[in-house]
Each structure stands twice: as C-alpha cells, then as structure tokens.
Amino acid sequence: IIASGGVCAHNILAIWRSHTGLQINLIGMFFSDEYPLLAVSFAMRNIGASLLKWDNGRKDATPYTYTVGTSIQQPLTDLMSDALLSYDYTSQFGGISKIGFEWKYRKMYALRAGVNGRSGTLGGGLDFGFLIADYGYIFPSSQLIGDIHSLTVSFRLERVLQ
To answer: Each residue's pLDDT tens digit in the chain (162 positions)?
Structure first.
C-alpha cells in the first residue's frame, strides 16, 4: 500500500506468486515532489509443505515466514536529494527487526546506515545510468565469520545497447 499527502494519479495492483511464496504490493502511485511517499509491505515465504532433501537422506521442513515493513521517502528538492527511512520485521530465525536510513543525492550517489537485528550496517552506492556499484558493510555479523563486506556491480543492458 502506498499513500501520501499529495494527489494520486493512478495505481497498479501487482501480485507475485511462486510455488513457495506470495507477495502483494500496490505500486505505481505518483505524487507531487513536495510530499513524502509512504509505503507499506507484506510478504509470505515457504507457503505450504516445503521440504528440503539432503544427499545424506535427511529431510528438513522449511516453516513459512512473513515480513512486514514500512518506509517513508521525503524529497528534498532544495538539496536535489531524497531521504528514506525504513523499518521491517521478519519472522525468520526467531524474528529480526531492521531499521535503516538512506540519503540519495541527484539520484546518483547514496549513503546508507542501519541496524539489522543486532548488527550495524553502513553502505553507499553510485548510479551512472548504465552502471550501478553498491557497497555494504555489516558489523559485527557473527563471532564465527566476523564482519561482512559486500560489493555489487551491475549493468543496465538496455541503456548500454541504446
């Protein structure tokens, strides 16, 4: 569900379904650049009797999990920026809450910070239109494996081929 203080131009109901999950979102609502955009989401995974079968003959059932979340995005037109605050809760692994903040400048540079369960997260990204680079750092992720660094680079082929 997406709502705002601005005037809605149109909305689209999108339903995604696979053999293990169901997700329903209302997307594509357009508002004035001066008003914040509020989004609410709900997703369920592993619906039904999913069963993992290992090579050693062991079988493990995968319980269903759900995620609920909300976010608010505020355009900062004088700064040519957007600020986003988000929260979600997932029932997986006994329940994990996540909260995060993202500041995006000129839709090209992004800085992020947040809390994922008991771990802190920092990150940033660059969007050059055809090339996207994103870095994430989770600390401390676990005493067994230590901190995690993640670097993702992706290409938008439709823009490269134009």
So the answer is: 333 333 333 333 333 434 445 555 554 445 556 678 888 899 988 887 677 888 898 988 888 889 999 999 999 988 999 999 999 999 988 899 999 999 999 989 999 999 988 889 999 999 998 899 999 998 886 667 788 899 999 998 887 777
**What is d(CA 84, CA 6) in angstroms, rounded to the nearest whole number?**
17
Reading phi first (left if > 0) and then psi (alpha if -120 to 50, else beta), residue 95 is in left
Residue type, 68: V
pTM over 0.90: no
Distance CA 153, CA 155 (A): 7
DSSP string, 108-139: TEEEEEEEETTEEEEEEEEE-SSEEEEEEEEE
In the chain, the amino acid numbered 115 is: V
Q: Determine contact, residues 27/12, Cβ cutoff 8 Å.
A: yes
- Tokens found for residue 92: 């997986």
Alpha-carbon distance of 125 to 132, in angstroms, equals: 7
Cβ pair 11, 2 in contact under 8 A: yes
Distance of CA 152 to the CA centre of its chain: 15
